[in-house]
Amino acid sequence: MTVGAKFCAMGAQEHRRADHAPYIAAVRHSIETRDIRVTDVRTTTSGDGRREATLILRPDDAAFAERVRGEASASWDEDNGWSLLVRHESLASHVHKGLGVVPDPEDVAAWAVVLLAHPELTPSYEDHPFRDHSAEDPGFEARLAQYAPRT
User: Fold this and answer.
1) 3-class DSSP state for residue 66?
2) Phi, psi (deg, nearest 5) at residue 50
3) What pTM was estimated for this model as a whole?
4) Spatial separation of the C-alpha atoms in residues 49 and 11, rounded to whole Å
5) What is the C-alpha separation between 78 and 49, in angstroms, rounded?
6) Model confidence pLDDT, tens digit, residues 123-147
7) Are 92 and 100 in contact (CB under 8 A)?
8) What is d(CA 44, CA 46) in angstroms, rounded to the nearest whole number?
9) What distance separates the 2 farthest-apart alpha carbons in the chain?
10) What are the angstrom distances between the C-alpha of 15 and each of 34, 64, 102, 138?
């Protein structure tokens, strides 16, 4: 008696990574609707695969009660979320938004306005990283993918 066996080939499911550029573009648009000009945007991937972005901000002086001196940049990475760096001469203030890696673009823009206008009122949330970019995370990928243009 011969016993037959069936083997099913299991295809390796490719881990799909969503492009972070559309999310960053949505945040840029939200920031610019609040009279903060974004003069440069860099979306990159680090050597170890972490998606990152930096936006150079130039607030409109007329939009703020006091002139925002120095330079400001908003940074994002998929492990830690958003942070804002404001430099005034030799002093620098680096504040982390906290509360998640992919907050709504409108929320990021509102946070940036408050931070630029009143840095003393904005606490820095140091409870990051929120995730590990090297671990598969379909929920995170889905949140990023929702900003991709519809084809």
Assistant:
1) coil
2) -80, 125
3) 0.82
4) 24
5) 10
6) 788 777 889 999 999 999 999 999 9
7) no
8) 6
9) 90
10) 37, 45, 19, 9
